[in-house]
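Sequence only, no structure available. Ideas?
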Amino acid sequence: MERDEFKKRFPTLAKEMEKGKGKADLEFEVKPPKPQRRFAGYDPDAIDFIRRCSGEEEALEIIEYLRGREEISVEEAERLCRQLEEEGLRSFGSMKEPGYYERGG
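Reply:
I predicted one. Tokens follow.
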């Protein structure tokens, strides 16, 4: 806990400790803030799921699944299917291997 936060939460105890009246003389350890994970809170979209696919059939299943759950519109599903058919699976980007988000992309 940071010194300022401790003072705010326990003002009387902090005063006693600073004056040396308290029985316990605690030391404050300043910890550096934890590095923020790059994808913390990120919600993958349809293209992120498609990029994990190893074949076009799998990608079509993903598109249909997302459309069925109404996570993408019918128009978006049609656009994705058209792109898949005309330009191929890797037109969405390179394949994302397992652990992609943990490694930070």
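The mean pLDDT is 84.
Hope that gets you unstuck.
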